[in-house]
Write a structure and sequence with these properties.
Keywords: CBS domain. The chain has 222 residues and is of the alpha+beta class. The protein is 32% helix and 22% strand. The strands form three sheets. The protein has a four-stranded antiparallel beta sheet with strand order 7-8-6-9, sandwiched between helices. Strands 3-4-5 form a three-stranded mixed beta sheet. Strands 1-2 form a two-stranded antiparallel ribbon. α3 links the parallel β3 and β4. The two termini are 23 Å apart.
Length: 222
C-alpha cells in the first residue's frame, strides 16, 4: 500500500498569509500539533509549524509569513506505508503531507489511516491465530517456515519480524495463520527445531498481533 492510496484531500493546509488564530483553530479541529504550510500559487509544500511555535504568541492576527518555518516533512506519493509510518515516528507528527516528485502538495495522511492500513495488511481482524517463533538470525529463512506451516494445511495471513532487545543474535517472528487450532503447526515446527513462544490455548489465540497493533497505536500516539 502506497502513500497515494491513503490521501486525505479534505484537509486544507495553511498558507503564509494565514493567521496564528487560524493555525490554532485548525490544530484544535484536527487534533494535531503540526500543520503543513503550502504556497498557494505554486502549491509547493514550503514547511510546517508546530503548536509550540505559536502557542505563546499573543497577537493571534500575526501571519504565518512572519514566522521562521520548520523544514518540510513529507512522504512521496509512491512511498510505501512503512516509510510513511517511519516518517511519522521520526518527526513525531500526526499529519504527514504527501507530495509528488516536484514537491507539489497533494494531500495529507493521518495517523489513523496508517494504523488502519497496517491492520489491513497484517489481517489483524481476520479469523485465525498467531504463532511466535524465536530464530537465530543466522538461521532465519522464510521459505522453510512457510513450507512447514502450509504442509499442515494452514495459510500465512500476516507476518512480523522483530529483534528482541535482550537477544541481539535472535529474531522473533510472529505469524498470523488461518487455523484457530495451532497444535499441529506448533508440533511440526518444534519437531524441526523451532522454539515457539506462543501458548497453544484458545483464550490466547488472537492475542499477539492484536497486542502489537495496540502497542503500535500507543507508539504512534504522538
Amino acid at each position: 500500500m502506497l502513500a497515494k492510496d491513503l490521501l486525505n484531500t479534505d484537509f486544507k493546509p495553511l498558507e503564509p498569509s494565514s493567521t496564528i488564530s487560524a493555525a490554532l483553530a485548525k490544530m484544535d479541529a484536527w487534533q494535531t500539533s503540526n500543520i503543513p504550510i503550502v504556497e498557494p500559487t505554486t502549491k509547493k509544500n514550503i514547511g510546517h509549524i508546530l503548536f509550540d511555535d505559536i502557542s505563546d504568541i499573543t497577537d493571534e492576527q500575526q501571519t504565518i509569513s512572519s514566522l521562521e518555518l520548520r523544514q518540510p516533512v513529507y512522504a512521496l506519493k509512491e512511498q510505501h506505508v512503512f516509510e510513511v509510518a517511519r516518517q511519522m515516528l521520526q518527526h513525531e507528527v500526526r499529519l504527514l503531507p504527501v507530495v509528488d516528485s516536484s514537491e507539489t502538495y497533494l494531500g495529507v495522511i493521518e495517523k489513523k489511516q496508517v494504523l488502519e492500513a497496517l491492520s489491513t495488511m497484517l489481517n489483524i481482524a481476520t479469523a485465525g491465530s498467531t504463532i511466535t517463533v524465536e530464530i537465530p538470525q543466522s538461521d532465519f529463512t522464510i521459505s522453510e517456515l512457510v513450507h512447514l506451516i502450509e504442509t499442515e494445511g494452514a495459510k500465512i495471513l500476516g507476518l512480523t519480524v522483530e529483534q528482541p532487545v535482550d537477544f541481539e543474535e535472535s529474531l522473533r517472528v510472529s505469524l498470523k495463520i488461518s487455523h484457530e487450532d495451532t497444535s499441529a503447526v506448533i508440533s511440526s515446527l518444534q519437531r524441526h527445531g523451532y522454539i515457539t513462544t506462543t501458548a497453544n490455548r484458545n483464550d490466547q489465540m488472537q492475542v499477539d498481533l492484536s497486542t502489537r497493533a495496540d502497542e503500535l497505536l500507543r507508539y504512534l500516539d504522538v
